[in-house]
Structure formats: C-alpha cells, structure tokens
Amino acid sequence: MKEAAADSVVVELIEWLVRNPDAGDRIEAVAKKISNEVVAALDHSVDTAKRAERRKKLAASHFWCDILAGIAKTLNDIQEEIDKVIAQVPKLVISAINTSSTIGTATVELAVEKTWEQIKELDFVKTALQLHDLSEPVRAVRMLAIMICPAPERHEAVIKHCVKPLVGDQVHSLTKQRLETALPAAWLD
What sign has the CA pseudo-torsion 168, 171, 172, 177? Predict the structure, then answer.
C-alpha cells in the first residue's frame, strides 16, 4: 500500500514535470551538480579500488535522498523564517523610526503598513525578496529617503541608515569628508 502510494506520487510528479519543463531543467541541473561534483569529491576521498563499491552502497541506501531531504527541510525552514521577517517589516519599521510627536501613532502605523505593501509589490522588490538579495531595494529606498527628506543634515536616522551606507558606493569621498566635517561623529558611526 505504501509503495503504491509512493509510486502514485512519482507518476504525478512526472506528469507535472511534463507540463512544467523549466522545473525539470532545474532538477536536472541539481542532479548533474551532485553526480559530477559531489560524487567526484567523494571518490577522491577513498582509494580507487573502493570507489565502485562505495558508489553502489550509497546508491542502494537512503544516503542521497536523506541529504536532499535535509537540504529541502533546511531551505524550507529558512524560507519560513524569511517570510516571518517580511511579514514583520511594518512592525520593525515602526519600532526603528523616530517620528514627530505631532503625528499620531495610528497615522504612522497606517503609513508604514501601506508603504511596505506598495514597495513589496514592485517587480524588482519581489525578485529581490525571492532571491534574498535586498541590496537594490535597500539602495532605492535609501536614495529616495535622502531625496525627499526636508533636511537630511538634521535627520540622524537618514544620515545613519541612508547616507552613511551609500558613502563609497554612490557618494564620493569629497562628499564623505564634507559629511564628517559637518555632522556629529556619532551619526556616522
């Protein structure tokens, strides 16, 4: 019964792969990396005479599927944690910012939540979140914050979290020297 159920899963996966050939290409790429690189590394770790026997033993056991299942679980766990963090962005932003006391908490919360909703819907941000490389969205948000700030030189958070990280990348050394002269050192730490 278990074997029949497992066979059904394999059949359905094959049918799905026929309809989704790109996924099949990705699976094949992983398989090739393992068979070409990992197996070769394992082969080099034993005497030549023992390689065939070891390969046979590893293929007959749950060695490879165990490793892949462990990687799948770990990557899934990481994705779940990333999803939790992404869901917490508005809350984390609210705790990280200092807003004027004349602006009500409800207004700040609504603005942060709606701003994040809109930013995360941008195609380049969606791609960055999927790739777990937020450098481009961070750079865009930093630059926008600097450009819309009415007085960046008086706004510690903008200096610390937006200007300083861009020094050397988009902001040249002469500007860096001006900032160091004009602003409190603590803002640039």
Answer: negative
